[in-house]
Write a structure and sequence with these properties.
The complex is a heterotrimer of chains A (about 270), B (about 350) and C (about 350). With about 270 residues, chain A is an alpha/beta fold. Chain A is built from 9 helices and 12 strands. A 6-stranded mixed beta sheet of chain A has the order 6-7-8-3-9-10, sandwiched between helices. Chain A has a 4-stranded antiparallel beta sheet with strand order 2-1-4-5, covered by helices on one side. In chain A, a hairpin with a 2-residue loop joins β9 and β10. Helices cover about 70% and strands about 0% of the residues of chain B. Classes of the chains: A alpha/beta (about 270), B mainly alpha (about 350), C alpha/beta (about 350).
Chain lengths: ~270, ~350, ~350
């Protein structure tokens, strides 16, 4: 990891109608890493991401991209520096899938149509959507649409990629595939920031984790340091256990019984 | 890497399957042929009898070519000073209305955004009539299109402002605001024609239902630059408009300055519509049905929709006007009446058909 | 050059008007004209004309004529052999001047005399098309300032056909003036003078007879072009100007503040309290008969309605200001003053 952050939030807050959605967040994103943003619902993860991407202006604090305030960038410039995959894709117009992916090439004005097509097909292969090129976007399943949207984001070929719940509607295989792709991007030097709600995906693929609770960043640190049972239990308001993953050299997170009824009863020897 | 297109039960209801769509070149070529045919037929039909050979002969003669075909001076005058300007005005008006309609649908992210439905046409009518009343003497024929632009922009901005809520354009508000603005504009234009005793202001009927009967070469030359502006500039925004359909937020992320694109496209579209309204009154449904038809055949990509709509719109207006000036001869049926009578039910049918699809109503 | 100078006959136009379904004309005309302020006249056949008209055929000896119309355009008329009229009043006058045989095309409002109704129709006064007019191959076209769009008039002129646009004439002198002007354009000024003088005589007779009358009843002219169009009261600056006075009545419209055609308001009508209401049979038809007419707000409450004094005339007869106006004034005066003798 290089020492200068490509993206930085300094003391960033967002207040709307008296409600504080994000409270003095400090966050830095470095090239070549996957930074996962996790936390319970309503913690402000999406809001934070939207401020980092430039979609919302913070009511306090600054966001810097390559040392310059986000505010100072023109849209077109910004589009060449960072790509964003929002949580919900709203496209309701019957575009061809390939055309949707090609839209990601728009910021690259100097590129040729042939090169654009090359890039589009490559990222579609990476997201297992190559067989969908001729299809109409609106006829795809939720998971397929998410992967196509991801392909579009990848086609943008930016040094920073920000994703809001990229694995939301994906099945197991595709979840792994996407996270693998993101990790691959990081090894190539891309700075990846992903809001995730699956702690184990974060555990296995993220280099660092930012844990949010009620708009405040409780911790930003290498994964292992954040994946602590006590901290997680407190933040999520539910007992959580952490143990070494049986197959990987990563933490494995799991919820603990809380007295509520469930099909499986605690095994003998289980600890709180 | 398999590329076989899988059959999907949803594909049939969501517009043409991507593989079945017409490409830009074939579609524009097809529509172009239709336009040419419409022009040729229209030039040959009218109360004064001019044979097809004579039509060709007269045109060649004006181009300096002696064809050896015989025709009378009267046929020459009728074709060259009456029929041809009328047909050419139809081409320009149709192309302008259709391309502007397609562009408006892009920036409002809504296939219902027709210049008439959202009140822009009626605003342009009021602006035009007002400008002719106030400045017709000094500006001459230019007063119409300029006034049309001012009136149309006022209407467009009013409707836009009303329909925007929390970053999204509400369909219902858009249409309702459009109805109200259209009513005000139409009534205003009508009242001006009623009150001001100047034939240049035209009649209330002209403004509300349109007519190409006042076509002269002079009027055509005045209208042409405004429509050309639309035909040249609007397609330059085709990719940006595509991205806007992706979502305003997504478009912004991809580098599109959505607000700026919106304002520029709106202004250029209104400039075009304003000029057509000044020349021929309010002709509805062209800006709505032609882009819709093109999308049904070729998908929503503006790089296809904009040029194809222009050609299709031109053909449609030429044909509609042919019907308008011959179906009840010697009465000049307002061409807008015809487009409404045919377009209205057609639009309802399209509404019903596309309601089953979830696509297209962003 | 391959151009021939022989004008062709208007076959297509005749064919077109025969082919085009008559049924379109009605509904479309109703729809269109109801949006206009129509002074176009039309209606059923009515009382016969009594003014004797000298008959002359062919082109008059007074041609060629150079005439500047109300639109400032100078036209040169060399031949009155094929006349097209764009308004019923001119049709009537041309026939009265004896040149009815030369009329080859009329507008839709030309239904008097009867022969005119069978002539090819070239348009509606305010919704003209150039080609149907040109297709009749006219040598002169007569219209007034309501013949619009003006671009169409230009288009006709561009093919070498002179189009004479007359101003709107108003007042009791209008019929004679119109007749003289039309006759001048057609190259028969002497005939025109004869007819004009005889028409003026008739009018003057009525005016003289009513001049001495002291009790002048209030009267109102209520005009309605079609079902759904605005109901108007006609006063000064309309074709009715001075006519009611000439017939020995008082027009209530000017007193109600109307300058020209005024949309009928119950207050205006009630305030004027006319003893007579004059209207056209087209207006009666449009309201669905006399009962319907009396239901127009304000009309039923007038003394005229109470006494049953609703005078109905054919449109062109009442509003045409032409050869039959003398007869009209006589009819009105007799209605207003039954005891009056008019020489």
């Amino acid at each position: 990891m290089s020492s200068d952050p490509v993206l930085e939030a300094r003391d960033v807050s967002l207040e709307i109608d008296g409600a504080v959605l994000v409270d003095r967040a400090d966050l830095a994103l470095y090239p070549g890493e996957v930074l996962a943003v996790v936390g319970p619902n309503g913690a402000g993860k999406s809001t934070l991401l939207r401020m980092l991407s430039g979609e919302i202006e913070p009511t306090d604090g600054r966001v810097l991209l390559d040392g310059r305030s986000l505010h100072d960038y023109r849209h077109a410039e910004l589009a060449r520096r960072r790509a964003v995959l929002p949580q919900h894709t709203l496209l309701q117009f019957a575009f061809r899938t390939l055309d949707v992916v090609l839209m990601g090439r728009y910021p690259h004005r100097d590129s040729t149509p042939e090169h654009d097509r090359e890039v589009a097909l490559r990222v579609m292969a990476e997201t297992d959507t190559l067989h969908l090129t001729g299809r109409t976007y609106t006829t795809l399943s939720g998971g397929e649409q998410t992967r196509v949207a991801l392909a579009r984001v990848l086609a943008q070929e930016t040094p920073i990629v920000m994703l809001d719940e990229p694995t939301g509607s994906l099945d197991l295989r595709h979840q792994e595939m996407v996270m693998g792709t993101l990790h691959g991007l990081a090894t190539e030097g891309v700075a990846v920031l992903a809001v995730l709600h699956d702690l184990n995906l974060a555990a296995r693929y993220a280099d660092r984790v930012a844990l949010l609770s009620r708009g405040r960043i409780r911790a930003v640190a290498p994964t292992v340091e954040v994946m602590q049972a006590g901290l997680l239990s407190e933040v999520y308001g539910h007992p959580v256990g952490v143990m070494p993953h049986p197959h990987f050299d990563c933490p494995f997170v799991f919820p603990l019984p809380d007295g509520a009824a469930a099909r499986c009863t605690p095994a003998a020897g289980g600890e709180r | 890497m398999t590329t076989a297109p899988p059959a999907s039960p949803q594909a049939a209801t969501a517009g043409p399957a991507a593989s079945r769509r017409m490409g830009r070149a074939p579609l524009v070529a097809l529509l172009g042929v239709m336009l040419l045919a419409a022009i040729v037929v229209s030039l040959g039909v009218g109360a004064v009898q001019i044979s097809p050979a004579a039509v060709v002969g007269i045109i060649l003669d004006h181009l300096g070519i002696d064809s050896g075909i015989e025709f009378t001076a009267r046929q020459d005058a009728v074709l060259w000073s009456i029929r041809l300007p009328r047909v050419m005005l139809g081409v320009v008006v149709g192309a302008g209305l259709a391309v502007a309609g397609a562009a408006l649908q892009g920036i409002f992210r809504n296939p219902l955004a027709d210049p008439q439905l959202i009140g822009v046409s009626s605003g342009a009518a009021l602006g035009s009539a007002g400008a002719i009343a106030l400045a017709g003497g000094s500006l001459g024929l230019l007063a119409g299109p300029i006034g049309g632009f001012v009136g149309g922009m006022a209407a467009g901005l009013a409707v836009y402002a009303l329909a925007r809520h929390e970053g999204r354009t509400e369909v219902v508000t858009l249409i309702l605001a459009g109805i109200a603005v259209a009513a005000i504009g139409g009534a205003g234009a009508g009242m001006l024609s009623f009150v001001v005793d100047d034939p240049a202001i035209r009649t209330a009927l002209f403004w509300s239902l349109g007519s190409l009967s006042v076509a002269t070469w002079k009027l055509w030359w005045v209208t042409l630059p405004f429509v050309l502006a639309g035909l040249v500039v609007l397609p330059m925004f085709a990719r940006a408009l595509n991205l806007t359909l992706l979502g305003e937020r997504e478009a912004q992320h991809l580098g599109v300055d959505v607000e700026r694109v919106r304002m520029v496209v709106l202004a250029v579209a209104v400039l075009t519509v304003g000029a057509t309204v000044a020349a021929a009154g309010v002709i509805g449904f062209i800006g709505l049905l032609v882009p819709h038809g093109v999308r049904l055949a070729a998908g929503p990509d503006h790089r296809v929709v904009l040029p194809a709509s222009a050609v299709g719109g031109a053909a449609l207006v030429v044909l509609a006007d042919l019907a308008a000036r011959t179906m009840a001869s010697p009465i000049d049926v307002p061409v807008g009446l015809l487009t409404a009578v045919v377009g209205g039910p057609l639009f309802l049918w399209l509404l019903r058909r596309t309601r089953r699809e979830h696509g297209g109503w962003g | 050059m391959k151009r021939l100078a022989i004008p062709e006959t208007g076959n297509l136009a005749r064919g077109a008007s025969a082919r085009s379904p008559r049924r379109w004309v009605g509904p479309i005309a109703v729809l269109l004209v109801s949006a206009l302020i129509a002074t176009a006249c039309g209606g059923d056949d009515a009382a016969a004309t009594t003014t004797a008209a000298p008959t002359t055929t062919g082109t008059g000896g007074g041609l060629p004529v150079v005439y500047t119309g109300a639109d400032g355009v100078e036209s040169t008329i060399t031949d009155a052999g094929r006349i097209v009229t764009l308004s019923g009043e001119f049709t009537e006058i041309v026939f009265a001047l004896g040149l009815g045989g030369n009329v080859v095309g009329v507008d839709l409002s030309s239904v008097y005399p009867e022969e005119a109704a069978d002539l090819p129709k070239v348009g509606v006064e305010r919704l003209l098309l150039a080609e149907p007019i040109i297709a009749q191959n006219p040598t002169v076209v007569l219209g007034d300032v309501d013949a619009t769009p003006v671009e169409v008039i230009d288009q006709v002129r561009q093919t070498g056909i002179p189009v004479v646009i007359f101003p709107r004439y108003e007042g009791v002198d209008a019929p004679a003036t119109k007749i003289r002007e039309v006759a001048r354009v057609l190259g028969i000024p002497e005939t025109g003078e004869e007819l004009a003088a005889s028409v003026q005589e008739e009018i003057d007779a009525v005016v003289a007879a009513t001049a001495a009358v002291e009790e002048r009843p209030p009267a109102a002219v209520v005009y309605l072009a079609n079902r759904g169009s605005t109901i108007l009261m006609l006063g000064d600056n309309t074709v009715m100007e001075g006519l009611l006075e000439a017939a020995g009545a008082i027009d209530v419209a000017p007193a109600a503040g109307a300058d020209g055609m005024m949309p009928l308001t119950p207050e205006a009508l009630a305030g004027g309290a006319p003893d007579y209401i004059i209207t056209t049979d087209r207006g009666i038809d449009a309201t669905g008969g006399l009962e319907g007419f009396l239901e127009i707000p304000g009309v039923g409450e007038t003394p005229a309605a109470a006494a049953g004094n609703i005078l109905v005339f054919e449109d062109l007869y009442l509003l045409g200001l032409g050869p039959r106006t003398g007869q009209l004034l006589r009819d009105l005066a007799t209605a207003f003053h039954p005891d009056l003798t008019i020489p």
